Structures are given as C-alpha cells and as structure tokens.
Amino acid sequence: MKANPKTVVLYLGMVGFIVLSFSLITSYGARTLRAPDAVGGQYVIESALVAGCFAQPPLLVVGQSGSYLNADIVASDAKKNVLTRALKGNGALNGQVISGKLAVAGSAKLGTCPDKKTVTVDAVINPEGLRGQLKVGSEVSPLTGKLKAEKS
Amino acid sequence: MFLPNFVLAAAAAPSGDAHIVMLLLIEIGVIIAFSRLMGLLFKKLSQPLVIGEIVAGILLGPSFLGLIAPDLSAQLFPPETLPYLNVLAQIGLVFFMFLVGLEFNADHLKGKGHAAVVVSHVSIIAPFFLGALLALYLYEPLSTNAVPFTSFALFMGAAMSVTAFPVLARILTERNLHKTYLGAIAITCAAVDDVTAWCLLAFVISVVRSGDLLGAVPTTLLAIVYIGFMLTVGRLLLVRLADFVEKSGSGRLSQVWVAVIFIGVITSATITEVIGIHNIFGAFLFGAVMPQRRVFVRDLAEKTEDFTVVFLLPIFFAYTGLRTQFGLLNNQALWLDCALIIVAATIGKFGGSTISAKLSGLEWRDASALGVLMNTRGLMELIILNIGLDLGVISPALFAMMVIMALVTTFATTPILEWIYPTHRFGPTAELPEEQAGEAEAATTYDILVPMANPDSQMGLLRLALALATPDREQARIHAVNLVRLGDEYSFDSLPEQAEQLVAQSQTRLDALVAKAGGDTRHIRTFSQVSDDVSADLCRIAQARDADLVLLGWHRPTFSQDLLGGNVRPILESAAADVAVFIDRGLNVGHGTRIVVPYSGTVHDRLALELALRLGISHRAQIKILQATVLSRETRDLVALFQERVSIEVSAILDEPLTNIVEASRNADLLVVGSTPQWGIERQIFGQLTDELATRCQSSLLIVKHHKTATPHIETLLATKPQLVGAQTP
C-alpha cells in the first residue's frame, strides 16, 4: 500500500506534537506540583473529650481523595460497614489535608454520648500518626492518634 | 422493602462458605434483574442499554441504596462478599474484552482515506492532550504524592481518549448509518481508538507499576514481543484451528474446541498479567487475532456472549457502582472539577473529531455527527477507570467524577445525534434502494407496503397484494419489506458487517419469494434493512413511500391472546395509512372468488368494501355484503356504480350479526372486515371476544382499519373507468 505523503507528514506531526507536549507537561508537573501526603487510614485516637463516649479508645477513620477527606469517629469494634462508611464518602466529617495538616469537621454522634454535636479535628500528620486538637461543641481538648497497621 | 427480610435473614443464618454462596446468589439475582430492568427502561428512552446497566450498578451502590437504606445495603452487599463479586467481575471483563477483540475487524483500518486517518488520530491526540493538561490542575487537589505525576497525567490522557466501539457501532447500525461515508469513517476511527486506547492503557499500567517511564521499558518490550508473537504465530495457529474446525463436520464449534479456545483466552490473559500489563489486554489480543469472517468465529461469539453479557457484565457494573461514591463530591469545588472534566473530555473528543473532520472535507453536519459519536465512552471508560482505581492512580472522588463524565458523554450521544442527524431525514426509511431511486420519476397511483416478517412463508400475502394492485397495473407499486431486527446490544449479530450479512440474506429470500409468486411482478419492489423498532420503522416507511395500504400478515402471538398482538397493533395504531391484516387460510384470488363484506356503517367497513371491489374488478370475484345496519346512501351509490362490472349481492339485515357472518364465511373464500367494535376487533375489546371472529371465521380473513388521511381505494378505478372495464383480467 502506498502511503499518501501528506498523511504521513500529518501523522508524524501529530505524534511529534503529543510526545513533545506531554514531555513538557510532565516535566513541569513533576517539578512544580506537590500533591498531599497519603493520610487515609484508621487512627486509634485518645482525647479527654471522647473517653466518656467509648469503652475503648475509638477510631478516627479517614477516607482520602487527594486533598479531600471524609472521616468518622467510631468505636474500635464497630461493624465493617460502619468502619468503611467514611471510605465511601458517607462519613460525618469532611475537610482537607493541606501541607500535612488535617482538618475535618461536621456534626456527629460520638459513641454512647447523647445527641449530635459539632466535631472538629485539627491535627498534624506525622509518621506514627497524628497530633492536634479535638473540639466537641464548645469544648476543646488535645488529641493524639496512632495509625493502625491496615491502611485504607 | 427491596427484598423480603426473611430472604436476607435466611442468607445470614448459615455460616462459612454456604453463607457466602447464598449471599452471592441473592446478590447476583438482584443485580441481573435490576440491571436488565434499568436497561429496558433506558431503551424506552432511546438510550443504549449499557447506560441503564451502569445506572443500575450505581443505584445499588453507596451513592443511592447505601444512602437511603444503609441497613439493607449492608445486608445485601456485606463487605465479605465484595472480593467474590470482584473476581466474577474480573472474569467477566476478561471474556468481554475477548469479545471486543473478536469483533475487531482490521479491515476497518484499511483504505478509508485521508479523512479517516486524520480524524482517528486527532480524536485520540486532542483528548489525550487535554487530559494531560487537566492533570496539571487536578493533581494537587485530587491525588496524593504516592502517585507520580507522570503516571497520573498518562492515565488522565488515556482515560479521556477512549471511545466505546460497541455502543458506537450499535448506534450506527440502528440508524442504518453504517453504510454511509460518515458511518465508515466513524467505525474506522472508533476501531483505531479502541486499539490505541488498550495499547495506551497497557503502557500506562506498566508505567504505574514500575513507577516511571524508564522502568516501563522492559515491560513495554516484552509486551511488543508478545503482540508480535500473537500477530504471527498465534494468528497462524488459530487460522489452522479454524480450517480444521470448518473441514470437520458442519463447521460448528464443539464444546471441546470451545474449551480449547477459552483456555487460549485465559492463557493469553495470564501472560499479559505476568508481563505487567493487564489481563484484559491479553484477552483482547487473543480475540483480535482470531481469523475473521469464519463460521466458527460467529459460533464462538454466540456461545460466549450470552453468559458474559447477561450474567458477568452486570456484576462488573454493580461492582463499579459499589465503588462509585458520589457522596465524596460534597462541595462546590469538587462539582466544578467534575464539570471541568466533562467539558475537557467533550472538547477533546467532540471538538477534536469535529474540527478535524471538517478540515478533512466533511460537511459541518457530518463532522459534528462524527464528533458526537466519538464522544461516546460507555463501558470502555468504566473498564479503564476501574483499573485506575485498582492501581491507586486515581482517587475515589476522581473515579466518581470520571464515571459521571462517562455517563454524561454516553447519555448525550443519542439525543444530540438525533438533533444533528434526525432519523426522519437520515434514518433507515430515508434511504431508497438504488434501483428504486432511479425510478423515482415514475409516478404511482397505488402503493401497497407489504411487511414480510418471514419471506419464506408469506406467498399468500404477496399474491393478495398483487391482486389488490392489479387494477392500477403499471402505476401500482408493491413494496415488499423485510426488516431485520437487530440482536441485543453487544451481540455479534448487531455489528455492522454481521447486520449487513443478515440484510443480504433477507434480500435474497425476498427476491426468491417474488420470483416464485408468478404473474406480473415488475411493479414489486423488494428491500431489506436493519431495524431496532420494527413497527415504528414500518410506519415511517409507509409514510415515506406514501403508501395507500399497509398489508400485514398475521400469526398468533405466542404469549398473548390478543388477536392483534406483536407488531400488528402498534402499526394499526400509528401508521398514517390504511392498514389491512391478512389471516391466510389458503386464499387463491381468482375468477369466482367469493368475498364476504360485513357492513355496520363505519369508515372501516367502507374501506373493507373498497378493497373487496378492487378484488372484484380485477378478478371478477363475487362480493356479498352482509348488512348489520342499512347501507348508507354513499355506500348504496358505490355499489350501484360497480354493480354492472362486479357481481355484488346485498343481504337482508342480519338478526345475529356475528353468528350470521361466521355462517356466511363457511361458503366464502375471503371475509373482509372493518375493525369495528361489533365484530369484536376494536382495541377496547380484548381476550376471547377479540379473537372470536378470527377463530370462528371459516375462510381467509382480511381485517382492515381506515386512516382519516388515506385516499379512497377506488379513486383511481373511478378516474380510469373506461379503460378499466376493458382491462379486467379473466
């Protein structure tokens, strides 16, 4: 089959264009863009504000989609569908992780404590887990969390 | 409640494997039933079946069922069953991709000219470029540093570039566009996109798994070696297998050979998985190198597709739905990102294809129709997205956005295409057979449309049409039509080439029928074409041909007691022409044929009389009018006008019309009856009464229904009265 020279030139031109433009895009992106750390997972948290609502230290379950977070504070022995609720986007707390700082907030019922309350978690992520503060209603207390072995 | 509680409770009761198996069976039953239901619902909305199935999967997932009934959702789809659903979905994909490969015809890529080359490449490059560009914007908010930017950008580019070949081919075939220049280019471009997208995906997977472009080199080289092996040695072996199978026996595949081929599919899938590209690529490749146009390929496709498409694919859709979490899109910024993805995908595919097609010389209408078709992503997009999510290269929120993009672009295809390329102007009925187009100047005075559901057994119908057309002689046209109903979506038979083969076979059968009909068949025109909605297409054809009469055959519906079941009732209700339904009990119209026409004073009875007069004029048939009510003045005048030339007897007023008519039919050859409530044939009356006249009638029966815009059937007879008298046939 004899190839049309015009078609060949066009074909090579298009391939050249995409290779060149893709190289430029990836080189720029890899050099300048910084996506957030992967912070999704289950953290065993300790805080004075939740101690009375759970028999054992509860879990902060964090589902991550890039910088966007969906989270829940649930009992450590909760059923799997409750544990995975935040990973499905149906968790009670929403927020973002920006520059290693996790911030989620929402209205949630904590364990056996009555009524839904406004819950805010602000924490810094470190290799072992997280450290920051928990706000329930108008009360604020320090918060620490250890990452459970199994990540989301 | 979706499922009775006791069913779920029973499933929850046993423990271990039995418990999982029971839960899985319930899940699969629900998935298949719901996806078929939604598929049919979307078909009613003129949407591809696949859209309904994808939506069904999403509705069963956390975005809908999980939200409105979390307990039921947790009971129905407990986390412990998801791995099993995933395995079934993966097996389904392997065999579906084998089918996609099997349907891939390399001939599509040959000799389609400059336009096809340009459009096919631009339709990949433009969305790929925009996808990579969009990655710059989406990487920081929607990815993590665990994913290298190169992998993310490559994946976004590949995911934007895909076109759903099966959906596109189906839309083209349904609209009979596959034989047009536009259709040829669209199929070529979609085939190129298909192959390129899978190769690109294989490359993306190797890059993602190895971490960078350099690390992907060994995988890419191995993949190229394997592709080369399959295109040479693999193809050679399969050609030999095809030769062997076709020479031995009937050329049909025995179960042993099906097993051999399935083992080949699985082996190929495993090899590509081991190489480091995905197993679906191996399955696709194995299908693509199968020898085309062989009897056994069709046989193999038929054996594989039902279980894959009906059983396994819905599980894939449901599994996808269970992973699609619209709840993650919980703020305005995320929805704006989603809109941006849809816009970028559309500009890349639709814009790129349209502009390149226009620059290649197509008209704006054709160019934009091509762009719309290429923008169809459907199931193919979901396959790529699931792989991306499995590899961790896209986040769940981005996955949800891309699923919405796939749905929107696929959903938009049919209505926009209808707007650009309206069916009534460019659809099946707009197309005239070549020989007919050449004779368009020959004016006709009487046109009968004769739909032939089964050309092999409808000689009586054709002969009746010939008899009815005889008075108009050269100026009459009989349009014998056979509409080939397309197979289900994804079926091998609904591919353009396969559909064309079926049409060619149908045309041959029609021509053979006409040749056997005897007599003067010069004014019979035959044509076949594909149709997705037989009754609607027949109504459109009747309108396009300006038919005076639509003459339908009849067979008793299998599952219905409705006399006018199947396609008959919709045509009776919708055709903008007079319609006659013929129940043949060995009628042979000729000299002395006895015709009985019951009369109750309706316009339908008047039509019955007119048709009887046509037969009387042309074949000197004897007409007997049975008066349930006294003939109107116009009818009496009509009878008087023809009484000299046709033997017409008018009965006394009937005391028991139905019984009297049945009795009269014992001594008649044909009963021509208007669709009148009195005879139990009007639509309001169903069941036994409806059937009564047809079942008790002892002769052949012609049930007629007048349409208000139709021209009287004796008009031409009256206009040409002097000639007609001399032109009567013996």
Describe the overall structure:
The complex is a heterodimer of chains A (152) and B (730). In chain A, strands 1-2-3-4-5-6-7-8 form an 8-stranded antiparallel β-barrel. Chain A has helices spanning 5-32, 48-51, 80-83; strands at 41-46, 59-65, 68-74, 93-98, 101-108, 117-126, 129-136, 139-147. Chain A has 152 residues and is an alpha+beta fold. Chain A contains 3 helices and 8 strands. In chain A, 37% of the residues are buried. Chain B is of the alpha/beta class. Chain B is 62% helix and 9% strand. Chain B has 30 helices and 10 strands. Chain B has helices at residues 5-12, 16-44, 49-60, 65-68, 70-76, 82-103, 113-142, 149-161, 165-174, 181-210, 217-247, 255-275, 279-288, 295-323, 332-359, 364-374, 378-391, 396-420, 423-426, 434-438, 459-469, 496-517, 534-544, 568-574, 603-619, 633-642, 657-665, 688-696, 715-719, 721-727; strands at 446-451, 476-485, 524-531, 549-553, 578-583, 594-599, 622-627, 647-653, 670-674, 700-705. A 10-stranded mixed beta sheet of chain B has the order 3-2-1-4-5-10-9-6-7-8, with helices on both faces. The radius of gyration of chain B is 31 Å and the shape is elongated. Chain B starts with a helix and ends with a helix. The chains are: A alpha+beta (152), B alpha/beta (730). At the A-B interface, helix 1 and strand 2 of A face helix 5, helix 7, helix 8 and helix 18 of B.
